[in-house]
């Protein structure tokens, strides 16, 4: 369908829009995105058409064009919507909670479960495939997905820095590093063709390792326990004197008198012929 015919259908649908106005009904928008998700997952981006999406969503093509100009615009909106929902669901923290390791461990498990879902993997593959031709879609995916998660985690880490529990110079970099440690070990095999979900034991090992590495790098050493933020027993008293150095025991100097190496007198043999 040409852009002119799509615009004509959109104008016809606008006249039928209700109190919300053209393209402003949030329920209708969710209905369209739900149908689009079904079609894109089933047929892929290239094979999907606006007609297919309209039928799956139960709306007319005219109504579809009121909300979205074209298939690319619709896919970008779907990606942004799903990424935003995921970020809002996963990255929820209690800044007052003292146990950083537990918070990061819980996030790591939830994060891995989200990024290995078949729907997410399919979306990620599609974004990677079309980002060269439609860079705006790639940008929206990155901003609504990875960037949003990093920003939310950064706020939690910044609060822990203020409380003296963590020692981080760049919280956004630290947040990106932690999420990378969690996902890189499990998503790469799936992206390149493995359809098997990660083994739960392996996922747990990845998360626990990520938390250990993160706390080793950013735990506030000497300022508080990285688990609970307390300082009891962490810092040594400044008044304590260091232990006196232990001197080496006196060693008896060995006898260095040069031994007598003179050869013994040897009797001269009798060389006369017998």
TrEMBL record:
Q: Which Pfam families match?
A: TetR_C_7 (PF14246), TetR_N (PF00440)
Keywords, in A-Z order: DNA-binding, Transcription, Transcription regulation
Q: Per the record, which residues fall in region Disordered?
A: 238-274
List the Gene Ontology MF annotations in alphabetical order: DNA-binding transcription factor activity; transcription cis-regulatory region binding
InterPro entries, per database record: DNA-bd_HTH_TetR-type_CS (IPR023772), Homeodomain-like_sf (IPR009057), HTH-type_TetR-like_transc_reg (IPR050109), HTH_TetR (IPR001647), TetR_C_Proteobacteria (IPR039536)
Q: Which residues form the HTH tetR-type domain?
A: 26-86
Q: Which residues bind DNA?
A: 49-68
Q: Which PROSITE patterns match?
A: HTH_TETR_1, HTH_TETR_2
Under which name does UniProt file this protein? TetR/AcrR family transcriptional regulator
Q: Which organism is it from?
A: Xanthobacter tagetidis
The organism's taxonomy opens as: Bacteria, Pseudomonadati, Pseudomonadota, Alphaproteobacteria, Hyphomicrobiales
């Amino acid at each position: 369908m040409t852009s002119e015919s799509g615009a004509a259908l959109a104008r016809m649908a606008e006249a039928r829009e209700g109190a919300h106005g053209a393209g402003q009904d949030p329920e209708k928008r969710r209905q369209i995105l739900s149908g689009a998700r079904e079609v894109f997952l089933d047929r892929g981006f290239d094979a999907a058409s606006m007609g297919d999406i309209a039928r799956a969503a139960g709306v007319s093509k005219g109504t579809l064009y009121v909300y979205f100009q074209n298939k690319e615009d619709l896919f970008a909106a779907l990606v942004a919507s799903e990424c935003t929902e995921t970020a809002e669901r996963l990255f929820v923290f209690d800044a007052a909670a003292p146990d950083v390791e537990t918070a990061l461990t819980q996030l790591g498990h939830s994060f891995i479960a989200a990024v290995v879902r078949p729907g997410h993997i399919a979306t990620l593959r599609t974004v990677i495939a079309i980002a060269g031709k439609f860079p705006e879609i790639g940008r929206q995916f990155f901003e609504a997905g990875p960037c949003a998660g990093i920003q939310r985690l950064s706020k939690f880490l910044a609060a822990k820095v203020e409380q003296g529990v963590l020692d981080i110079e760049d919280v956004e970099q630290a947040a990106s590093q932690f999420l990378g440690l969690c996902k890189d070990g499990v998503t790469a095999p799936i992206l390149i063709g493995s359809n098997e979900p990660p083994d739960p034991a392996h996922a747990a090992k990845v998360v626990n390792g990520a938390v250990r590495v993160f706390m080793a790098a950013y735990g506030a050493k000497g300022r508080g326990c990285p688990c609970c933020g307390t300082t009891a027993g962490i810092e040594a008293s400044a008044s304590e004197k260091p232990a006196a150095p232990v001197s080496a025991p006196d060693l008896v100097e060995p006898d260095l008198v040069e031994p007598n190496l003179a050869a013994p007198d040897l009797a001269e043999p009798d060389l006369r012929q017998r």
